[in-house]
Design brief:
alpha+beta, Beta-Lactamase, five-stranded antiparallel beta sheet, 16 helices, 17 strands
Length: 596
C-alpha cells in the first residue's frame, strides 16, 4: 500500500511541468531550512531569556531607586536653601529672643511669601510647613493647610529623632501622623530641625511634604515600559506607595520580611506568572517591591525577535524568488519556443526572440530562427515569382483594353470633324490628352485621389461625346481625401462598368454616382448606378478569380480587384452590392498614403 502511494507520488512529480518540479524541490529545501533555523533560534532565545530575566527586573528596581533617591536628594538640598535663607532665619531668631513676636503678621507674610516661591518652582513638593519655637505654623499647601493634632510640635513622636540627626533630616510617612489625615492620602515628609546658622541653636522645625503621586511620577515611564506594579515600604514597614493592582497579602509580607539586598522569584498570581523582585534601599532602609508579568519581559526583546524572524523570512523569500527566477529562466524560453512552433502550424513564420546567451537554449533558438528565415525567404521567392507572373498577365489585359478605347475615341473625333464640330473636337482631344497624361504619370504606379478623379472626368467627357445625353455623372468627394495617393486607373474601370453594363442595357437615361470618403485608416470609394443591376451568380463570377474572365463577367472589375489585392497585399479589396433592375454599388477600401 505504502509502496503504491510512493509510486503514485513519484509519477505525479515526474509528469509535472519543469517549473513545478523546480519549485517543489526548492520549497522542500526552504521549509526544512526555516523549521530547523527557527528551532535552533527558539532554544537559544529561551535559554538566554531565562538568564537575563532576573537581571532586567533588578535593574528596573535600581532605576526606580535611583529616581527616588535623586528626588529626595533634591528635596534635601532645597530644604537647606530654605532654612538658611535670611527670610527664614531672621524671623525665627526674633521669635526665639522675643516669643511675643510669634504672632507678628509681617513675619508670617515674609516667611509665607518666601515659601510660596519654592512651592511654585518645584512641582514635586505638595506643601512646606515651618513651626517656630512657639509651635506657630507658617507654610503653603497645594491641597489645604493642615492642622496639628498635638499641642506642641515638640510632642511629635519623631521630634527626638530629628534632634539626634544633628542638622540632618529624617523621612516619615504622613509626617508621622501629627496631622491625623486619612490613610488613603499619602505623602512622605522630609523633617529637619531649623538651627541658627551661627550658633546652631534650634529655632524651629521644617517639614517638606512630597506626595505619593510625585514618587510614582518619578518612575512612571519605567512602569509603563515594563507594565510593572510597584510597592514602596518605609523603614517602619509602612506603605509609602501601594500596588496599583491587588496582590496577594502573603507575597507582600514575605518580601517585606526579607533582609537580602535584592532578590527575584517567579510567583503565580491569579493564574498569571509574575516576576516578583525586592530591593532594599540601604540608605533609608526602605524596600521596593515590584511585580512584573512574565510575558511582558518578552516585549523587551520583541524588536530583536522581529528582526531575527524578519531576516529569516526575508532569506526564505529570497530563496523562493530564486527558485522562481531559475524556473522562469528555463521554462519561459522553452514556452516561447513552443508558442512559435505552434504558430508555424497556423502559417505564422516568425522568429522567436529569447534573451539567452550561448547556452543550450541559445543554440536551440538560433537553430530555430535559421529555419524560419529560410522558410520566409522561400515564401518571399514564391510570392515574388507569382506577382511577376500576375503583373505580366495584367499588362497584357491593359494592352487589350487601351487600344479598344482609343479606336472608339478616334472614331468619334472623326465623326465630329466631318460634321464641322470643331469645338467638340477640341474638347474631346483635350480630354483625351489629359486622360493619357495623368494615366501615364511618368511611369508611376500611384497618383493622388484628385488626379484619379480627373482621369474619370476626362474619360466620362469623352464618353458623353460618344453616347450623348444617356447618363448624368454625380461627384460626392470629401476634400480631405484628395491629397492621398492611390493605385492609378482603378476608378475608370468602375465607372466604365456602370456605363456599359448598367446604364446602356437599361435603354433609358441613368445616373452614376462617384463617392469618396475618408475613414479611420482607409479611403472608401463607391461607384453607384441605377442601371439594370446583376444577379448573385454574375457577381460571384466577377469576384471569383478562379473563374475565367470574359466581357460578360466584366474583366475590368476583375482586373481592378486583382491589381488592388496584389499592390496592397489585402484580400477581397472590392465588394459589389447589386439588385436586379434597381442598380449596382461597387465599394473599394484603400489604405491611405498621403502625398508628400
Amino acid at each position: 500500500m505504502l509502496r503504491n502511494i510512493k509510486y503514485k507520488i513519484r509519477k505525479i512529480y515526474l509528469d509535472s511541468k519543469l517549473s513545478t518540479k523546480i519549485l517543489t524541490f526548492y520549497t522542500g529545501v526552504l521549509l526544512s531550512s526555516v523549521i530547523l533555523s527557527a528551532f535552533i533560534y527558539q532554544n537559544i532565545y529561551n535559554n538566554t531569556m531565562s538568564q537575563k530575566v532576573s537581571e532586567v527586573s533588578v535593574q528596573t528596581l535600581y532605576s526606580i531607586s535611583s529616581n527616588i533617591l535623586s528626588m529626595i536628594e533634591n528635596a534635601k538640598n532645597l530644604s537647606k536653601v530654605i532654612i538658611t535663607s535670611d527670610e527664614i532665619q531672621q524671623p525665627l531668631n526674633q521669635i526665639a529672643s522675643d516669643p511675643s513676636s510669634s504672632s507678628d503678621a509681617e513675619s508670617q507674610r515674609i516667611m509665607n511669601t518666601n515659601i510660596s516661591k519654592f512651592i511654585e518652582a518645584f512641582p514635586f513638593i505638595s506643601s512646606i510647613y515651618i513651626y517656630d519655637s512657639e509651635s506657630q505654623r507658617y507654610g503653603i499647601d497645594k491641597m489645604h493647610l493642615k492642622t496639628l493634632t498635638i499641642k506642641d510640635i515638640s510632642d511629635a513622636n519623631w521630634y527626638q529623632d530629628a534632634i539626634d540627626a544633628k542638622g540632618g533630616f529624617i523621612l516619615k510617612l504622613n509626617a508621622g501622623g501629627i496631622y491625623g489625615e486619612a490613610s488613603e492620602y499619602k505623602y512622605i515628609s522630609l523633617i529637619r530641625i531649623i538651627n541658627d546658622i551661627y550658633t546652631q541653636k534650634p529655632l524651629g522645625v521644617f517639614i517638606m511634604n512630597i506626595s505619593e503621586d510625585s514618587f510614582v511620577n518619578s518612575y512612571e515611564e519605567i512602569l509603563n515600559r515594563y507594565s510593572t506594579d510597584i510597592m514602596i515600604l518605609d523603614d517602619q514597614g509602612q506603605t509609602v506607595v501601594d500596588f496599583r493592582n491587588d496582590q496577594p497579602p502573603q507575597l507582600n509580607k514575605l518580601l517585606a520580611e526579607n533582609s537580602e539586598s535584592s532578590k527575584s522569584m517567579v510567583q503565580d498570581i491569579n493564574g498569571r506568572e509574575y516576576l516578583v523582585s525586592l530591593l532594599n534601599m540601604q540608605k533609608y532602609n526602605w524596600k521596593i517591591i515590584s511585580t512584573m508579568p512574565f510575558d511582558e519581559l518578552s516585549k523587551e526583546s520583541a524588536t530583536f525577535n522581529a528582526t531575527a524572524f524578519s531576516i529569516l523570512a526575508f532569506n526564505a523569500f529570497l530563496m523562493f524568488l530564486g527558485s522562481i527566477a531559475i524556473s522562469r529562466m528555463i521554462t519561459i524560453p522553452i514556452k516561447k519556443l513552443l508558442a512559435a512552433m505552434k504558430g508555424v502550424e497556423n502559417g505564422e513564420f516568425v522568429e522567436v526572440q529569447i534573451d539567452a546567451g550561448n547556452d543550450e537554449i541559445g543554440s536551440l533558438r538560433d537553430a530555430y530562427n535559421i529555419m524560419i528565415t529560410e522558410i520566409q525567404n522561400l515564401i518571399k521567392k514564391v510570392v515574388s515569382d507569382e506577382k511577376t507572373k500576375r503583373k505580366a498577365e495584367l499588362d497584357v489585359l491593359q494592352a487589350q483594353i487601351k487600344p479598344h478605347f482609343l479606336y472608339n475615341t478616334f472614331d468619334s473625333i472623326s465623326s465630329l470633324a466631318l460634321s464641322g464640330e470643331n469645338e467638340q473636337v477640341y474638347k474631346v482631344m483635350k480630354a483625351l490628352g489629359s486622360y493619357y497624361r495623368i494615366s501615364l504619370s511618368k511611369g508611376s504606379e500611384v497618383i493622388t485621389v484628385a488626379e484619379e478623379i480627373e482621369v474619370v472626368k476626362n474619360y466620362m467627357a469623352i464618353q458623353r461625346v460618344r453616347y450623348g445625353d444617356i447618363f448624368n455623372m454625380h461627384y460626392e468627394i470629401d476634400e480631405k481625401t484628395t491629397q492621398y495617393k492611390i493605385l492609378k486607373l482603378i476608378l475608370q474601370p468602375l465607372v466604365e462598368n456602370s456605363l456599359y453594363h448598367g446604364i446602356k442595357p437599361k435603354g433609358e437615361k441613368g445616373n452614376i454616382y462617384l463617392r469618396c470618403r475618408k475613414k479611420s485608416d482607409y479611403i472608401e470609394i463607391q461607384v453607384e448606378d441605377d442601371g439594370v443591376g446583376a444577379d448573385e451568380t454574375t457577381i460571384s463570377k466577377i469576384l471569383d478569380s478562379s473563374y475565367p474572365a470574359s466581357s460578360k463577367t466584366s474583366f475590368g472589375l476583375r482586373g481592378t480587384s486583382e491589381r488592388l489585392s496584389i499592390f496592397y497585399g489585402i484580400k477581397n479589396p472590392l465588394s459589389i452590392k447589386s439588385t436586379y433592375n434597381v442598380g449596382t454599388t461597387v465599394t473599394i477600401r484603400i489604405p491611405v498614403e498621403r502625398k508628400e
